[in-house]
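Sample 1 of the test manifest.
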Amino acid sequence: MSIASLTKAWQPMSYGFLDASAKRELRRKMLKAIAVPGCQMPYASREVPMARGWGTGGLQVTLTLLKPSSVVKVIDQGADDSVNAASIRSFLSKVSGAAETWDTLAASLIQSRHRIPEERLHAGQILVLQVPNPEPLRPVEPNMSVARQMHADADYGRLWLILYEQIVRSGRIMEGAAYPSVVNGRHVMTPSPIPRWDVPKLHMAQHLTFLSAGREKRLYAVPPFTKVEPLVFSDVPFKVEDHGALTCHRSGVSGFYMNEIPQDNGGSAFELSDSHLGIKAIRKAEGEADRIGATWYRNGQLA
Amino acid sequence: MTALAQSLVPASVPVPDAFEARTNATFEALMWALSRPGTVQTLPAPGMKGLVEALVDRECKVFCDDADLSDFVAFTGAALMPAAAADHAFMGLDRAEGLKNLEQIPVGSALYPDDGATVVAFARFGEGQKLRLTGPGIETSVEITLGGLVPGLWALRAARSRYPAGFDMFFICGTSVIGLPRSTLIEVL
């Protein structure tokens, strides 16, 4: 054995920014996360050149998976062109040589803040969701040691109590995002603050989903073909947002999740939250050959 | 830009070295193997060494019953441990002794499912015991045959699995790998 065999040549930066030991730790935890779907696995959460809470958890998972042939798409609330999404995407390609795309169909790796694209993800695609608060029990149990015991016991009664109280107070379930869902019939997870509209997209999906919280140092996963069932009462069915009848004022497309844009006259206009679907629709209307993939929703109904 | 800041900017498109490319590809195979139990994924190199490179370092406690591979594991800085204390086990499951070791492998607990170990063993694909798999990652059910394994393995796995506690398995045959996470229900046909 020689010194040279124990060291590596100096390089200004590890490929994909994270060093090899950070990647190994993430890999070990990602495998455990897949093995126990929906169960939060602790990890070290390294420093990345971005403030905690801005997607560092998702970033670390993405950096671990990146290779030169990856094609990355980054979404921020449905948009590819927001400052946060554009910055993360250019960082990812800069440190890995991976290609960038806005197109859901072309991407091999999709990092997302709070939306799942409207076009169906296919087998082989990986969705990485950034998670601010991974603990579904936090509103009912602030002590995380107790919360861990509740997960171990599958003691989720108090989550139903929250939903019950909302129905009693407001006549409907008020949980707008991060709707607690049972994964594989065992662990309740918070599917990151995606709208209710996106929760059914995780159920028995073709793609692999990682959810990673950098600040909270936990990650969990939903493998393909895994049951993801929102918590419901048998007589109060799960309902997605009432967006099926809304029309996008820019692309004219309807039947998808919309952003509400307040107008000067007190009314609202709506536009597609999945910005690149809107771009594709506009291009198609203008006669360009742009392929829109199969969507999870058709005419506002889950297909 | 100062000289230091300049040196931190990659001069050109970063290219992974052979180690990074290999470990990345190995992990991708393992990830899809575990995500889609029963499917055969392809490793960049045959054998267990690639898995050691991709997963194991000085934070790990490794059980290894192969002298050759033990040296390779020790080189990563991992602590070589008896089966009962390991978080990664590279072991032979083709003999009765393997079954004894597997009895000792940590399965974690409902409180700490991540303490369940990762078990890696050689097997022969497409011959031997027929198994029907159901669970996450499998749309309905899938049937595989795994040979070269000690009888009683599947009974032991079933006896020691108390979901979410359990151990996760990778079987290797040349450059092929099959993953069986603890979430998979195995029916011995």
